Amino acid sequence: MKGWLHNGCLLAGLLIFVFSAGLRAQDVTEIKYKGTDGTMYTGLLVYSNEEDIFMRINFTQGGKFRVVHTDYAAVTGEEDGVNYFFLEGENAHYVTGDDGTAYNPDHFIWVWEDSGQYDLPYTSDDPEYNMEQATQVISYKQLEKGKVTDSYLRSFFGSAEPEYLAMRKFFGLEKVTTPVKPTTTTTTIAANKDVTMHLIVVANTAISDIGSSCSIDKRNLTSELEGISEVTGMKFKKYIVEEQEFTKSKVQNLLNAFTPGPNDVVMFVYRGHGFRWSNQKEEYPQLDLRYSSFTRISENTSINLEEVYNTVKSKGARLNLFFADCCNSDVGISQVTAASFMNMQSNNNYDTQKLRKLFLLSRGNLISTAASPGEVSWANNANGGFYTVSLLQSLRDEISYLRNDDADWNGLVENTIKGARYKSSKSVCSNCTQQNGIYYSEITYGK
């Protein structure tokens, strides 16, 4: 943290910030703060995930209106018993009002404990991160749809900028036309006609070490996919294997009896321990189906992810998606860390056309796991597994108006793997070993 938490005045002077009150996936927030020279700054902070953050800052200085663009990277951690969330600014440059002088990027920091109290973040543009130069921001608030005007957005963006057009859609300022229902062809999926979303979550919620993180992931996944089904008009069925029913026989019985329709969507998500046999050839992990660590690991208590993939794939659903958030190492012990990340919370700023492409106009199969052979995966008992958190962040990012490119499952899972890799990197999680997920995809799209 380069000294941000070493200065005694920070630890004594800052109240506590509860992380769940902070940034969320696909947040747009306004930050008002004052510089050391008295200049008033208004920042529009756009947050997608830990690696995809930027802020537009407008201010008047020397009688001239100026706008600066700054990119950000997020770092979380713990130092001297205090948790922190740090936004480090970089690549600051003028959009308008450039007078040839450099603009030092502004940095922001929150700290929190377990008391439930929180306060506004502090900011500084000091290149050496000297906390003696830090001041508390004046206000920090999430911007909501229906409460943002076009003139407000124009104070940060030019009318021809893609970001401006995306923001107009994001805040409901531009009418979004409903796509015309496609004509039936051999490659076209009839939108929401007799389509059921089948969500299968196998989560080790009862085991002592990672049970609470698995419970969080189960809840977030169920809420997210149920909401998507409602918006797209798909029927929704969920199958949850957890607690004392978290056994191989229960999973096999479910999969054998499972009968999706030919136009249905199936998403299978595993959250628990994973491991590899010493002589294992498959690159995908064994799913450890024991709800007690005192039960002996054997072929009767585990199943390979590829076996699940092949079983469900043979049922003939239109789209099959398989995700496993678990270790892929000989040790077979999922790792837990204190590093925290954004809680998933729903919002209404999604692009329906992108949702339709992902879930109604796609066909094929995708399989992915959180770690490569020999690696462990990481979880946090307050927020869930790094991979699952990244999966939900990437899904929200993929369907957002703030993305100018088209939605795509390959891009979504690649960003999921990238997000989990970043969360487990030493620069973000000092006690983690980096995880590098893997995937295979054979998905095509209709029109």
Could you characterize what this model shows?
This protein is 22% helix and 30% strand. It has 447 residues and is an alpha+beta fold. The strands form 4 sheets. Strands 8-7-6-5-4-3-2-1-9 form a 9-stranded antiparallel sheet. The longest helix is centred in the middle third of the chain and has 22 residues, at 211-232. The protein is globular and about 75 Å long. It starts with 7 loop residues before the first helix and ends with a strand.
Give the helix/strand layout.
Elements: H1 8-13, E1 27-34, E2 40-49, E3 52-61, E4 64-79, E5 82-96, E6 107-112, E7 122-124, E8 135-136, E9 139-142, H2 150-154, H3 162-170, E10 196-203, H4 211-232, E11 235-241, H5 248-257, E12 265-271, E13 274-275, E14 286-288, E15 302-304, H6 305-313, E16 319-325, E17 335-336, H7 352-359, E18 362-369, E19 378-380, E20 384-385, H8 386-398, H9 409-423, E21 438-445
Parallel strand pairs: 10-11, 10-12, 12-16, 16-18, 17-19
Antiparallel strand pairs: 1-2, 1-9, 2-3, 3-4, 4-5, 5-6, 6-7, 7-8, 13-14, 14-15, 18-21, 19-20
Order of helices and strands: HEEEEEEEEEHHEHEHEEEEHEEHEEEHHE
The dominant shape is: globular
Write down the overall mean pLDDT.
84
Quaternary status? single chain
Question: Nutshell version of this structure?
Answer:
This protein is an alpha+beta fold and 447 residues long. 22% of the residues lie in helices and 30% in strands.
